[in-house]
Write a structure and sequence with these properties.
single chain; alpha/beta; Rossmann fold; 12 helices; 7 strands
Amino acid sequence: MAKIISVINNKGGTGKTTTVLNLGAALKKLKYKVLLIDLDSQGNLTHALHITDAKHHIGELLLNKCSLQESIVEAEGMSLIPSTNNLLDFEYLINNEPGRELLLREVLSNTNTYDYILMDCPPSMGTLSINSLAAANFYIVPMQAENFAFIGLDRILQTAQKVKTRMNAELELAGILFVKYQNRTKFGQAVITSIAENSMLKNKLFNSYIRQDIALMEAPAFGQSIFEYAAKSRGAFDYMNFAKEFVKNYGKKN
């Protein structure tokens, strides 16, 4: 069975898409079969892989207007279920469906093809994000060590706990991943110390950090992961370290 991971934060610009794309690419390099799912109406993950002509998308899949296989496109050696710019319209329709929070779990229960399924969530805790948590084994919260980094974290943890209690007993916080990290700043170090000392988040801070790297910003513009765009960059090194740490702690062993 696939390990299903939700990458979630209800604040925008926290590195969700970058993490899904490059964690997926790192897992692919480690010889795992990977499926990415774009649940964000902005479609940043879809655009980052230069998918512009997909016949179907996640909204249609959740409303049973296409099959799982029909919704999948291939990009950079990974499979992707793309988003669409009118996904919010589909979310409105999904909200009228009985059991709407469980639609994605129902869809993914029919596949044994992949080792890892990574989901890029929208910057909100709406129906699509809840679907992601209801389907996942683990969730990862990417965040920056900066002012207001903690805003919304409590809500994510509380919402995830409700999903765990009511819908998905297997759901577990894999950890908090710091992205765009600058280890020389005192504030950044203070944020990490604060989380490390939080009893609710004990042992839930990944040892791997994703350092700030311009190549991570540039790669999606060329439709590439960091491993294709700049294989020797800090970003590539950091995401590979993170992938290995995740597999060691939570993943499937080759």
